[in-house]
Queue: 2 jobs
Job 1
Amino acid sequence: MKDARPLIVTGRDGAQIEVPVRISARARRLSLKVDPARGRPELVLPRGVAPTQAESFVARNVVWLEERLKRLPDPVPFADGVTIPLLGADHLIRHTPERRGTVRRIEAAETESACLEISGGADHLPRRLTDWLKREARREISQRARFYAGQLGRRPSRISIRDTRSRWGSCSSNGALSFSWRLIMAPEHVLDYVCAHEAAHLIEMNHSQRFWTLVERLVADMDMSRAWLKRHGATLHRYG
């Protein structure tokens, strides 16, 4: 698997769109997609496809590409005055350079709105907040994953927190669970569902009816949480 030179295609309004190209030995056909997490398109090619064939394929699909790019949510930086979700609730980012410590969470009852106060220099704010969110994700997810695994009489061999883009969680054959740290921004019922989902894989390494019965036994609002992820999950990648 390797990257090739990006293609440049002209849209209907005359604007040029850069399309990164990836060559994959596993690909059986040309595939054009838009990754919401990265906010950019990608063309996947099987080996041996001629450059002219790739260019023609993208040109034929330029209208579809433009429409998908227009639907991408705008990125939201971690910066003073920006609002981000934490466990599904909006929190205002406040830069407090004079305060000691790193990040402090203040509940809505104490101020006009819930907020996250970040100390230190402004240049360090994005990294400090990202690191804090990852630590919160590890704490919340580990607690939930172990709880749901225990309900099934199982114990994960390891729990990892990563910045995965293609899936929210995974379970390996040796019982290691992995989750996206961005789940810390989703509502709590979604966090519970993903943790229960992966815990159920400790028994059923598939998506059979037996598997879904296990998940439903662990969380009552499974369908609602699945629907939320399908509709809003990609927006979690716009933050930071």
Note: Helices lie at 51-60, 62-70, 125-151, 188-200, 209-218, 222-232.
Job 2
Amino acid sequence: MRPARLRTALVTATAVALLCLTGAGVTGTRPPASADAVVREDAGSAASPFVRAAGAPMTVVAHRGASSLAPENTMVAQEVGRRSGADYIENDVQLSQDGVPYLMHDATVDRTTNGSGDITTLRSAQLDRLDAGSWFAPVFTGVRVPTLAAQLADLRSRGGNLLLEIKRADTREQVAAVVDVVETQRMTDRVLVQSFDPRHLRWVHELAPGLPLALLRSTLDPDPVAVAEELHLASYNPGGPALETRPGVVADLHRAGVATWVWTVDTAAGWSRYEQYGVDGIITNRPAELTGWNHARSGTRNVPGP
């Protein structure tokens, strides 16, 4: 790791540790979107609550937590993302061998922990022992792989909203295990569920019709509006290069009352371009920088708490 990055990690970890020890609350982040939110003038009457109001800043979504400053998909990354002013934390969920939802992006634990193997072949007791921080920087040694339940409990008590990506769930029962945790943690009003797999979204809609849904896309569908209507989407979430091929799809979706959050954009040039396209949210590894850029552009303030 480069010295500058390590210094940043040390400062961040120290600050987070102090905050967690003192139990300081979190202020300054925007609340979850609500059904009575003011919507864009060009949006339909039944617009998604995730469509931003005209002139409002784009929603800031911290990709895998603040993954440029802390080990991804961990509680420390979530805390740094929250303190960065992010409106939403984005994380990935997969099931262990014994059916417990954990935060993990890769199919295996090899890259981001000191263990090895496919997460679906490891039991929760094994996952709980893994070190998920030392790969990023020595100061994070001992950081654990969180369960979805622990993550949601933290968001509920300390503040924040979740963009939750379901990965590698092959059955309705596996998706039900994820939905059950969201419901048990009483977080259905603060979670937006997304997936690349339309099956996941159909199952979530059957299990919990009130949970808002977003479809991830690396290439645009021929008719995103029709797909959004079929899947009951609140948001259609393409990758940046995909959106570049047809930027006008943002306006098409807005006319249908559907939001657009784009991933994963880490430069001011990209933020400016997608803002001009009219996107409603940006998923980024640099939430602190985007928060500052966002509010400088809009003239609003969203300062993280003490």
Note: The beta strands are 59-63, 88-95, 101-103, 161-166, 191-195, 213-217, 235-238, 259-262, 281-284.
